[in-house]
Every structure is written in structure tokens, then in C-alpha cells.
Amino acid sequence: QVQLKESGGGLVQPGGSLRLSCRASGDSFNNYAMAWFRQTPGKEREFVAAISWSGGNEYYADSMKGRFTISRDNAQNVVYLQMNDLKPVDTALYLCAAELSSNPALSIDPPLYDYWGQGTQATVSS
């Protein structure tokens, strides 16, 4: 099993940046593809970005391309989401997820992920 803990959320003005972190514990971090999703009240969980177990492949939702960057440090068991040029529509609870996978192809479907964190809130407002 893997336990995931997110951090780094907060309140930021439009155009600002946040760097989210997700620290994993338990099973070997290298066995898992990692992803970020986000959720707002009354809406379905939305895919943000994913990264393969090696960090060699990344995939982004279209609306995040060019603004968000996912990365991972397998030595530290951490995955990051750098969010730049934030907009009010980016306000959400951001959740980290892990999928037991050595496949370089990345999943965007929440049910395919095996473990989830509790999330960290990011609020973009002036």
C-alpha cells in the first residue's frame, strides 16, 4: 500500500504561482505512475497531469498545458505540481493519486488509480 500526503496549497492572486507537493510512504514509490486531479463542489474529479514511474513520460489536460508542470523525485518519494499563471477557474481541491504501473502510457481516468491523498486546497482570488 501507499499513503499519500499533499501540501503546498493556499490563497494566491490571479497570475500567481503555487507549487504543490505529494509525499508518498509505504510501498516502493518507483512502482507507481503518479497523477494530480482536482475537484470542486458539485463537479466530477478532473484530470490535471500525470507522470510515469520513471519520470520519462508526462501528460497534461489541455487547459493546463504550458501553465502546469508535473515532476517527481524518486529518491525523496515526492511528486510535484508547479502551477503558474493561475486563474480563478483553477480554484479547487488538488488531489494526488498513484497507479501501480510500469506502463509508459498514462491514465486520465480516476478509477484506474489505486491510492489517493486527502487533497490540498488552492484558491485563486484577488
Describe the structure.
By secondary structure, this protein is mainly beta. The protein has no helices and eleven strands. It has strands at about 1-5, 10, 20-25, 30-40, 45-50, 60, 70-75, 80-85, 90-100, 115, 120-125. The strands form two sheets. Strands 2, 4, 5, 6, 9, 10 and 11 form a seven-stranded mixed beta sheet that branches. The protein has a four-stranded antiparallel beta sheet with strand order 1-3-8-7, with no helix packed on it. β5 (about 45-50) and β6 (about 60) form a beta hairpin. The N and C termini lie far apart (about 40 Å). The mean pLDDT is about 95.
Helix amount, in percent? under 10%
Please report the distance between the alpha carbons of the first and last residues.
40 Å
Radius of gyration: 13 Å
What's the total number of strands?
11
Main sheet specs: 7 strands, mixed
Order of helices and strands: EEEEEEEEEEE
Form type? globular
Counting DSSP H or I runs of 4 or more residues, the number of helices is 0
Short recap of the structure:
The chain has strands spanning 2-7, 10-12, 18-26, 32-39, 46-51, 58-60, 68-73, 78-83, 92-100, 115-116, 120-124.
Q: How are the SSEs placed, and which strands pair?
A:
Blueprint: E1 2-7, E2 10-12, E3 18-26, E4 32-39, E5 46-51, E6 58-60, E7 68-73, E8 78-83, E9 92-100, E10 115-116, E11 120-124
Parallel strand pairs: 2-11
Antiparallel strand pairs: 1-3, 3-8, 4-5, 4-9, 5-6, 7-8, 9-10, 9-11
